[in-house]
Amino acid sequence: MPAAKTPAPRSWKKPDSHYLEVLENPWYRNLTVLQDVIAHQTTSFWTERDARYLHLPITTGSISSPMGRGSDSSPVKVNLEGVPTYLADSMQFMLEFGCRLAPGGSYYLMPSFRGEPADETHLCQFFHSEAEIIGGLDDVIRNVEEYLRHLAAGLLTHAGDAVRDMAGTVEHLEELAGSPALPRITFDEAAERLNADPRFVNEPEPGCRSLTRAGERELMKQFGGYVWVTHPDHLSVPFYQAFDENDPTKALSADLLFGVGETVGCGERHPDGETLAKALDLHEVSADSYEWYTVMKERHPLRTSGFGLGVERFLLWATQHDDIRDLALLLRFNGTAVLP
User: Is residue 74 scored above 90 in pLDDT?
Assistant: First the structure.
């Protein structure tokens, strides 16, 4: 039977006094332990694989969102000394750059910014654990699963009491830490399982399908909590995902569904400038902001794959909680001034 849990204070509902709740409530003391363990475990995992941590800027002229026609993600535009720029929604492009400097791969753990409003599954500013490796989609999926097992084992060893206090159990950590390879299905197989029900599968235009939150929950239910959904419609994902050579209408990418739903997104990238140019044209994305990215691939072609893990979404699963807004020490809501 699960133990009694420390309740989340829901202090995000009162942003002006939230910081005092953080200083006084045991929920947030536990959260600091979990955040620290995630940072240390991430570094130890990639250090063992000879990947390099990159120090990257948080501004960019080359955004990766909106992430396809099926996405509801939007970038955050700012004016920096008179120059329009964006706060980074992801640094995946920079990590691809890093792979050309570090054959063992590159990674980082830093904030990402999104323009959509916060809700129970989204934060306006969240921590992103991203990495890029040399290799294909199967290689990065294998790395993601090994990384998640490493994180779960690390939380058990170094933060078991904190997780138990917040979640009432650590059985889910034990399960993931010792799990075999996680199940995989293609998007087409997922849509068939869901009978293309519009409650579960969104199709704003032909060849641009995506799963709804309800669809993600239904698939997780069918597969016992964890499932990869691979090879989505290319028009529904970012332009930078590689084409499936066997079916160019599909992308060599995958989402891992567990916890609240999509918690990890990964994909293989275009290896050269020629295929990248085709993707930009297909997705009707202006090539101007990605000229440097195209030149890099023309001059230094390389097959790489990468992933992004939303840290707070992972912690939402780890704490068996239902609202991601309780997993930020200091709140940031778009359009709202919050101190400190």
Answer: no
